Structures are given as C-alpha cells and as structure tokens.
Amino acid sequence: MRFGEVQGVLLVRYRGTVVVTLKETIFDPQGEAVKNSLVAMGFSSVTKVRMGKHIIVYLEALNEEEAREKLADMARRLLANPVTETYEISLVEVPD
Amino acid sequence: MRFGEVQGVLLVRYRGTVVVTLKETIFDPQGEAVKNSLVAMGFSSVTKVRMGKHIIVYLEALNEEEAREKLADMARRLLANPVTETYEISLVEVPD
C-alpha cells in the first residue's frame, strides 16, 4: 500500500478494470469477422465471437468505494455507450 | 451441461474469454487519448489508461483441457500480436 497526498489528504492508488461489451441483442460485425476467420483457419467448433473492450484505469481515491464510484461515472460518461453496451467494473489496490 | 455430438463423440460447450493487452513497454496512443479525455472531464486523479481487447469465444470441445488449448492456439495465431501483446485465457462451461 502506498499513498499519494493532496492538500493533506491521503490517497490510495488503484488499478480499475472496466470491461465494456455489446448488449446481446446488438449485432457485432467485428466479432462475426473474427469468427469467420477462425473457422476458415480450421477452428470449426467456434460458434460465436463477441468483441469487447478491456480498459485499465489507474487512479487515486480516498478509498475503494470512491474509486468504484469514479470508475462507474467514467464508464457511463465516456467509456461505454449506454444504448448499445454494458460494463463491468473491478478494482485492486496497487503498491505503486 | 448440454452436449453437441459430432460422429458419435460428445462435445461440451464452453464460453472462453481471451483478454489481449499491450505489453507494458509498448506505447498506447488510444489509452493516452482516453486518459486525456478523462482528465479534461474532471477526473484529475487518473494517472494512466491502457486499452485492451476482451474477446468472448463460444466453442465446443471434448473437455476443458482441449478447449483451453484451442483458445491458446487462436490467441497465438490470430487474436493477439505476439510482438506487442500478451493474452490471458479463462473458460466456463455453458448450458446452451
């Protein structure tokens, strides 16, 4: 555990992960293209591929709750499209 | 648990996840752009962002070991660039 400090307040460093995936009902042409490539390469047992984003965000926050709230806010406002995508957040404290 | 069948052999259905991330030493301009956007939006505590791919592959295999080998083969041959990227595989059996 290591701390940053802003105006006398101790901040903890976190590595957050935001996984953004298309909603099941949304067509995924990139996933379809990857599936077709895999089948053409001989992986005939592949039935479906869905492409998503794996976004790692390093941030500082007072505690895990605040870090999680910030990440959810980032996901809603920038990282995910709420009409077509869903997101999942995970979080670990990092020593550096 | 549900089974597909090919020439009398029972196959199990799996949902594999291949997470592809850039190696730490590789510059990530997309992650840098997202970081700058987040800071400009007021998330000043963000220090770094790294963008990766979250690829979900539905496939059939004899067992978990074979499914994992197939996914690793797909990652090496198509999904990841071995020079600039690393990958991690996870796997769950699916009922459908």
Description:
- The structure is a homodimer of 96-residue chains.
- Chain A is of the alpha+beta class and 96 residues long.
- Chain A has a domain of 64 residues: Mth169, Chain: A, CATH 3.30.1280.
- Chain A is 29% helix and 45% strand.
- Chain A is built from 2 helices and 4 strands.
- In chain A, strands 1, 2, 3 and 4 form a 4-stranded antiparallel β-sheet that branches.
- Chain A is elongated, with a radius of gyration of 18 Å.
- The N and C termini of chain A lie close together (8 Å).
- In chain A, 30% of the residues are buried.
- Chains A and B meet through β2, α1, β3 and α2 of A and β2, α1, β3 and α2 of B.
- β3 of chain A pairs antiparallel with β3 of chain B.
Topology summary:
The structure is a homodimer of 96-residue chains.
Chain A: E1 3-6, E2 9-22, H1 29-40, E3 46-61, H2 64-79, E4 85-93
Give structural attributes.
homodimer; 96 residues; Mth169, Chain: A; four-stranded antiparallel β-sheet; 45% strand; elongated
What general outline of chain A do the C-alpha atoms trace? elongated
Helix/strand/pairing class of chain A, anyone?
alpha+beta
Biggest β-sheet description of chain A: 4 strands, antiparallel
Oligomeric nature of the chains: homodimer
Q: What is the radius of gyration of chain A computed over CA atoms, rounded to a whole number of angstroms? A: 18 Å
**What is the CA–CA distance across the termini of chain A?**
8 Å
- Under the CATH scheme, which architecture of the domain at 3-26 and 54-93 in chain A would be assigned? 2-Layer Sandwich
Tell me, rounded to a whole number, the average pLDDT of chain A: 93
Give the helices and strands of chain A as they follow along the chain: EEHEHE
Query: Helix segment count of chain A?
Result: 2
Output the CATH topology of the domain at 3-26 and 54-93 in chain A: Mth169, Chain: A
Give the strand tally of chain A: 4
What percentage of the residues of chain A does DSSP assign to strands (E)?
35-45%
The greatest interface between two protein chains, and residues involved on each side, is:
A-B, 34 and 34 residues
Low-pLDDT sequence parts of chain A: none
- Work out the helicity level of chain A: 25-40%
CATH class descriptor name of the domain at 3-26 and 54-93 in chain A: Alpha Beta
* Annotated CATH homologous superfamily of the domain at 3-26 and 54-93 in chain A: Phosphoribosylformylglycinamidine synthase subunit PurS
